[in-house]
């Protein structure tokens, strides 16, 4: 028997055992919540949440009843097999078209991936994209493509394999988290997709989130690498193994996954010191790495929160450490947070995350100590070199029935096992365990949950032969209802959504569905279905006194100082301590926080100022923006050492600041643009005093700039201020900006724009490259502040990366900007370059956060009718509908006596404006869903509908899974209106642009 290495499994270079004859080479593949094992006899086995055993198999069960399997792969909830004839087969999840059958339908039985043959290797990414390497050295890709990870020059999802541009003579492929990598026969390495944080390996670190270096839609060569024989990839973090046995690393580093002893990810490949004689490398997920040495030992580094490094007592390691007790290893494979190691004798070690039984040890217990995988049926040990048993114990199965699946704390839940069965025996025992540590035995149990959160209830059912099957459900525990309070109204706009606080303590939000802070069982169980909400939705939070938010994370402060958080939690920026969860769909209380006075959030980090003057931080810490003396991410609030007597906090992009009671300002984090004001560009991971800033009364942070207003009203700034020279480049330190003296508030998004509120209630904007955030139609860069017309009663301003909002004195809200998710809140999904009024929760009027004050709504801001627009799917498969409300522009009801009121029914008309089409810029949609050139009179889309009262609502289903990804459609818009006929509709201007096609 000889030993060699070869790449087949999900994100893993495998050091394989070569067998003579027709025997298959044993293989292991660790995915998101499952594991696959290929036996030398050609049989395939799985543990965890596999296609064939969805509840969760805690010991191997037979999957893929196919002959001729030579390689296996699993990622997320889909399984794949490569056959000796060069065909690919897959089963399971298909929401992003990863099975390439033109649908998004789940497939229980394996089916051939169409359009591919002569395949010799497969790689599947953590975000549902796949790569196939053919024997001719070309690479083909399909599935999700939002970051260009398919390498076809677009960002369009593909439901059938397409060739990766320009790749030939490829010998190995890998698919990471929204990124891909390939190795050529000449030893060079090529990457494409989401390459932030130096992932392109070309020595260039992206300067901001809009920098083209963040995304490469076609392969680009990594610099300074040759003689490479193996590659590995995580999330914008990469490794290369050279022929001399050394390992080189580059890209993102927040948990030490580069193994360099720091948290700084290099933009060019750097050799990992002290690591040699390596024969295989592995990097899965986004924050840990593995290496296999020639002596059969395994070394690991990076995040260890679930024991994925195979050691106890540490949360991370920035340098490679040996996994104890693991020897004679021939292959390694890493999943999202668990690891498999195939030994030379055919047995398999497993350790790390085990929520679905993917470790195959008969439990659902996470393991930081490697343990051998059990054999089929839960007895003995799995051995991939020995013929698998033809007869083995079939695992039992069951379902969980809950007396309540959601409710407010304290909540008592009755759980019972139903439909428990065993195909070859009987169920003999039931073992219950909850996510907060409660345990019970028997066919039924009762649990009481006192704290809010998303709590799992796990059940292991055991049969008479000792085999165990697993099933799990979650219970949503909402916070205790609190009495309504009087709050200061507030609005916030993020990158994809917006949030508002009413004066009665209610919290509303609109835009991307993950930011609504509501538990919707349908949405929560179908997270890949992205929904745009164009009108505000009221959360079940009451008693809030403040809100906060950043780039996806959202917070509400309750009257007692408790903070609830939800939203994007990829870097821990929500602070709820449930790491490994990309999105928090339910508001959860933040642990370890004393009563909070104020919040601040930057890109992916968050701050809290407690009522006793201390500062706590959590989330991304790549540039030291948490101020904790290191660069390690934190997943729950952590006190900044030495913080005291603080009266205000501010957070920009990857930097933070605090104002102390003595009028001094302290800052930390990113300093590449001089935003820390110390006349250097050296980033700091601990607070430093900003020179020259004394007697300060207020601070603001936007993008890469810090603003400090003295008690005399003068404004001083550090960093990159998005106005004309001399303030358009990083300055030597704090400098006076006269144009901002005596302003009330400064806000902005990234480095491109700023919005200013003056004491007279007027609003001024300025900045570069982002007219959508400036509030003016058709203008480009605005190097000086310019007043927005018609606004003289503003009391607060806020800005996202490509949009802004203004809260008026009467409680109504104006908004504008990019609107693909509905973040403007005007009932449409159409880009708005100038301010429009945000509508209320029922789209029957305008949002009013201070209902006691009479509204003074500008006449020119009242639309001809109200509506709510919704969309789902990706750009390549868009579904769109609109709910039209029966109300006239004046706000009065329709009747035969007024303009625009008719006793007869209305017709609904739909048109499209395609500005790139010179021959036919306007199209119309008829009732048969047929598009044609617009002619007059227009064809009706809906005929004779009732829209003559406030209660009348008509749903217009306009698009059904339509592909809008063609560059010719970029910027196209949809227009909807209604009238008794087209002329009457135009005469009364009863039509609105409701949707704008975004750039592919």
SSE arrangement:
Blueprint: E1 2-3, E2 6-7, E3 13-14, E4 17-18, E5 27-30, E6 34-38, E7 44-48, E8 57-63, E9 69-75, E10 78-83, E11 88-92, E12 107-112, E13 119-124, E14 129-134, E15 139-143, E16 158-163, E17 170-175, E18 179-184, E19 189-194, E20 215-221, E21 228-233, E22 237-242, E23 247-251, E24 270-271, E25 278-284, E26 288-293, E27 298-303, E28 316-322, E29 329-334, E30 338-343, E31 348-352, E32 367-372, E33 397-402, E34 406-408, E35 411-421, E36 427-434, E37 439-441, E38 444-449, E39 453-463, E40 468-478, E41 490-493, E42 497-501, E43 507-512, H1 521-525, E44 531-538, E45 544-549, E46 553-558, E47 563-568, E48 583-589, E49 596-601, E50 605-610, E51 615-619, E52 634-639, E53 646-651, E54 655-660, E55 665-669, E56 684-689, E57 696-702, E58 705-710, E59 715-719, E60 735-736, E61 743-749, E62 753-758, E63 763-767, E64 782-787, E65 794-800, E66 803-808, E67 813-817, E68 832-837, E69 867-872, E70 878-885, E71 906-913, E72 922-925, E73 931-933, E74 942-945, E75 953-962, E76 973-979, H2 982-987, E77 991-996
Parallel strand pairs: 34-40
Antiparallel strand pairs: 1-4, 2-3, 5-6, 6-7, 7-8, 9-10, 10-11, 11-12, 13-14, 14-15, 15-16, 17-18, 18-19, 19-20, 21-22, 22-23, 23-24, 25-26, 26-27, 27-28, 29-30, 30-31, 31-32, 33-35, 35-38, 36-37, 36-39, 39-40, 41-42, 42-43, 43-44, 44-69, 45-46, 46-47, 47-48, 49-50, 50-51, 51-52, 53-54, 54-55, ...
Structure explained in plain terms:
With 1000 residues, this protein is mainly β. It has four domains: 2-378, Methylamine Dehydrogenase, Chain H (7 Propeller), CATH 2.130.10; 397-478, Immunoglobulins (Immunoglobulin-like, Sandwich); 490-859, Methylamine Dehydrogenase, Chain H, CATH 2.130.10; 867-996, no CATH class. Helix content is 1%, strand content 45%. It has two helices and 77 strands. The strands form 19 sheets. Strands 41-42-43-44-69-70-75 form a seven-stranded antiparallel beta sheet, with no helix packed on it. Strands 71, 72, 73, 74, 76 and 77 form a six-stranded antiparallel beta sheet that branches. It has a five-stranded mixed beta sheet with strand order 34-40-39-36-37, with no helix packed on it. Strand 45 and strand 46 (553-558) form a beta hairpin. Residues 1-16, 514-530 and 888-903 have low confidence and may be disordered.
């Amino acid at each position: 028997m000889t030993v060699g290495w070869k790449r087949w499994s999900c994100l893993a270079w495998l050091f394989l055992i070569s067998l003579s004859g027709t025997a298959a080479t044993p293989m292991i593949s660790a995915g998101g919540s499952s594991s696959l094992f290929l036996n030398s006899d050609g049989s395939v086995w799985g543990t965890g949440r596999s296609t064939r055993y969805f509840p969760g198999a805690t010991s191997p069960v037979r999957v893929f009843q196919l002959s001729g399997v030579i390689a296996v792969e699993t990622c997320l909830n889909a399984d794949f097999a490569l056959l000796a004839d060069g065909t690919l087969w897959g089963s399971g999840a298909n929401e992003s078209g990863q099975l390439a059958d033109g649908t998004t339908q789940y497939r229980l039985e394996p089916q051939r991936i169409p359009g591919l043959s002569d395949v010799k290797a497969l790689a599947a990414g953590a975000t549902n994209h796949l790569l196939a390497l053919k024997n001719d050295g070309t690479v083909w890709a399909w599935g999700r493509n939002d970051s260009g990870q398919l390498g076809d020059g677009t960002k369009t999802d593909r439901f059938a394999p397409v060739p990766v541009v320009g790749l030939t003579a490829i010998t190995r492929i890998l698919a990471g988290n929204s990124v891909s990598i390939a190795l050529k026969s000449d030893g060079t390495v090529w990457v494409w997709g989401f390459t932030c944080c130096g992932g392109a390996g070309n020595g260039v670190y992206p300067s901001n989130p809009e920098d083209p270096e963040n995304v490469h839609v076609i392969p680009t060569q990594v610099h300074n690498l040759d003689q490479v024989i193996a590659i590995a990839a995580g999330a914008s973090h990469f490794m290369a193994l050279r022929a001399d046995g050394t390992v080189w690393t580059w890209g993102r580093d927040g948990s030490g996954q580069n193994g360099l002893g720091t948290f700084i990810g290099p933009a060019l490949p750097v050799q990992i010191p002290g690591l040699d004689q390596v024969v295989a490398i592995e990097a899965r997920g986004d924050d840990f790495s593995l290496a296999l040495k020639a002596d059969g030992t395994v070394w690991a580094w990076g995040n260890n929160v679930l024991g994925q490094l195979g050691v106890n007592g540490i949360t991370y390691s920035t340098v490679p450490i040996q996994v104890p007790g693991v020897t004679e290893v021939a292959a390694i494979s890493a999943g999202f947070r668990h690891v498999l190691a195939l030994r030379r004798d055919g047995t398999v070690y497993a350790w790390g995350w085990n929520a679905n039984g993917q470790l195959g040890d008969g439990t659902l217990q996470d393991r930081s100590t490697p343990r051998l995988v059990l054999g089929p049926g839960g007895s003995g040990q799995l051995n991939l070199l020995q013929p698998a048993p033809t007869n083995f114990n079939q695992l039992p199965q069951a379902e969980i029935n809950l007396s309540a699946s959601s409710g407010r704390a304290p909540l008592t839940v009755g759980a019972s096992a139903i439909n428990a069965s065993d195909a070859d025996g009987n169920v003999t025992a039931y073992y219950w365990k909850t996510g907060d540590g409660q345990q019970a035995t028997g066919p039924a149990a009762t649990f009481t949950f006192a704290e809010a959160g998303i709590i799992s209830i796990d059940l292991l059912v055991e049969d008479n032969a000792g085999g165990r099957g697993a099933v799990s459900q979650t219970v949503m525990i909402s916070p205790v209802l609190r009495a309504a309070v009087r709050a200061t109204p507030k609005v916030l706009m993020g990158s994809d959504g917006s949030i508002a606080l009413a004066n009665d303590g209610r919290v509303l939000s609109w835009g991307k569905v993950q930011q609504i802070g509501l538990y919707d069982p349908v949405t929560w169980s179908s997270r890949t279905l992205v929904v745009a909400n164009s009108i505000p939705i009221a959360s079940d939070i009451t008693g809030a006194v403040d809100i906060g938010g950043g780039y996806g994370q959202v917070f509400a402060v309750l009257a007692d100082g408790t903070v609830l958080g939800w939203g994007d939690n990829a870097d821990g920026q929500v602070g709820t301590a449930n790491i490994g969860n990309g999105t928090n769909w339910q508001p959860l209380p933040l642990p370890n926080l004393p009563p909070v006075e104020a919040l601040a959030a930057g890109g992916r980090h968050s701050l809290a100022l407690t009522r006793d003057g201390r500062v706590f931080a959590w989330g991304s810490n790549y540039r030291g923006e948490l101020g904790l003396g290191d660069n390690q991410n934190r997943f729950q609030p952590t006190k900044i050492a030495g913080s005291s007597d603080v009266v205000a906090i501010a957070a920009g992009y990857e930097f933070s600041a605090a104002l102390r009671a003595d009028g001094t300002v302290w800052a930390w984090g990113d300093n590449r643009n001089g935003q820390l004001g110390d006349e250097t560009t050296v980033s700091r991971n601990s607070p430093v005093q900003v020179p020259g800033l004394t007697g300060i009364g207020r601070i603001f942070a936007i993008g890469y700039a810090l603003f400090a207003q003295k008690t005399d009203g003068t404004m001083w700034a550090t960093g990159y201020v998005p106005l004309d020279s001399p303030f358009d480049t990083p300055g030597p330190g704090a400098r006076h900006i006269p144009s901002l003296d005596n302003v009330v508030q400064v806000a902005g998004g990234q480095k491109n724009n700023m919005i200013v509120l003056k004491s007279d209630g007027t609003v001024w904007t300025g900045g570069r490259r982002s007219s959508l955030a400036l509030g003016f139609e058709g203008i480009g860069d605005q190097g000086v502040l310019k007043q927005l017309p018609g606004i003289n009663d503003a009391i607060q301003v806020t800005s996202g990366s490509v949009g802004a909002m203004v809260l008026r004195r009467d409680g109504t809200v104006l908004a504008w900007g990019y609107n693909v998710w509905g973040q403007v809140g005007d009932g449409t999904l159409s880009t708005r370059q100038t301010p429009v009024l945000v509508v209320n929760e029922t789209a029957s009027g305008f949002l009013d956060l201070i209902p006691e004050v009479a509204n003074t709504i500008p006449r020119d801001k009242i639309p001809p009718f109200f509506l709510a627009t919704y969309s789902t799917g990706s750009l390549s498969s868009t579904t769109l509908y609109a709910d039209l409300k029966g109300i006239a522009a004046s706000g009065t009801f329709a009747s035969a006596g007024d303009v625009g009121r008719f006793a007869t029914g209305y017709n609904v008309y739909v048109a499209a404006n395609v500005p790139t089409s010179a021959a036919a810029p306007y199209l119309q949609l008829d009732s048969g869903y047929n598009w044609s050139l617009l002619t007059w009179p227009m064809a009706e889309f809906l005929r004779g509908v009732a829209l003559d009262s406030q209660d009348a609502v008509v749903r217009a289903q306009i698009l059904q899974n339509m592909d809008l990804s063609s560059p010719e459609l970029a910027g196209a818009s949809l227009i909807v209106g209604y009238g008794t006929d087209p002329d009457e509709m135009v005469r009364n201007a009863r039509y609105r642009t409701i949707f704008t096609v975004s750039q592919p």
